[in-house]
Amino acid sequence: MKLLPTLFAGAALVLSAVTAQAEVRFGVMNESYPPFFAKDASGQWQGWEIDLMNAVCEEMKEKCSIVEISWDGLIPALQSKKFDVIWSSMSNTAERSKVIDFTDKYYNTPSTLIGPKDQKPGSTAEDVKGKTIGIQVSTIQSEYYKKYFVEAAEEKTYQTLDEAFQDLASGRIDYVFGDSLALDAFLKSDGGKDCCAKMGYVADDKEILGAGVSGGLRKDDTELKAKLNTAIAAVRASGQYDAINKKYFDFDIYGAK
Fold first, then answer.
1. Radius of gyration (Cα) for the chain, nearest Å?
2. Sign of dihedral through CA atoms 210, 212, 218, 220?
3. pTM of the model
4. How far is CA 134 from CA 96, 161, 162, in A?
5. How far apart are CA 134 and CA 178, in angstroms?
6. Is 145 left (phi over 0), alpha (psi -120 to 50) or beta?
7. What pLDDT was estimated at residue 255?
8. Nearest C-alpha neighbor of 74 from the set 23, 17, 19, 136
9. Are 100 and 78 a contacting pair, CB within 8 Å?
10. More confident: 3 or 66
């Protein structure tokens, strides 16, 4: 009779292990990136990408959780199995594809420059000549700078976009270069609407800027990749994607360019 509690305890441990393995852990950058993800007053994550994550998890019938990691630590943390999928507005680029795999695209936006309102608009190397451009570290925009702007302008790197925005508003740099929707959100904010304006989209380069934002995976996680791709397609086909899109945007973010 004394064996029974041990057997039940063993069964409970097995069940617990199975449950833990079934959970899909989503790696999210540990800073606000509205309207894609940010914490509300209670500390809960919310935003377009969080809503999409929840819809995808419901479609997969999986329990999901969020793991917070700094932007430049996302790929190393994925590779060391601290979570299962990067879900943090990461563009699928040829360089990143050398070390990780990607799901199908789930949105796409262009890259742009913003600067002081009294600055002449323009987004070419000639336009930024002699200026200082603020760029978040380990981004596709930093790689773009190295190819197109390095001979013309100085790069100042930041751990977060918020730090770059503060320097732009105070006149310590001339431009911020980043994803257009994140920069648009700043231009609409109290800190950005009076000081700054859009300078223009940069010319596209798919090798650097990528083929859209996707979920990042370890290369051997083929089963999870297939499940995520199936779920993303189902969320789009069911109309849930459009409903989430309309909650945040007045255009189709899936094909935005």
1. 21
2. negative
3. 0.72
4. 22, 9, 11
5. 9
6. alpha
7. 75
8. 136
9. yes
10. 66
Q: Which two tokens stand for residue 157?
A: 């790197």
Residue 12, burial from CB neighbour count under 10 angstroms (0-12, 13-18, 19+)? exposed
**Within 13 Å, how many C-alpha atoms sit on residue 22's CB side?**
11
Nearby residues of 224 by Cβ (< 8 Å), 6 or more positions away: 24, 84, 85, 217
SS3 content of the chain, % helix, strand, coil (to 5): 40, 25, 35
Three-state DSSP class for residue 129: coil
In this structure, the strands spanning 24-29 and 196-201 are unpaired
Q: Give the bridge partners for 25, in sequence order.
A: 65
Calpha distance 160→29 (Å, rounded): 10
| Closest of 21, 219, 216 to residue 102, by C-alpha | 216
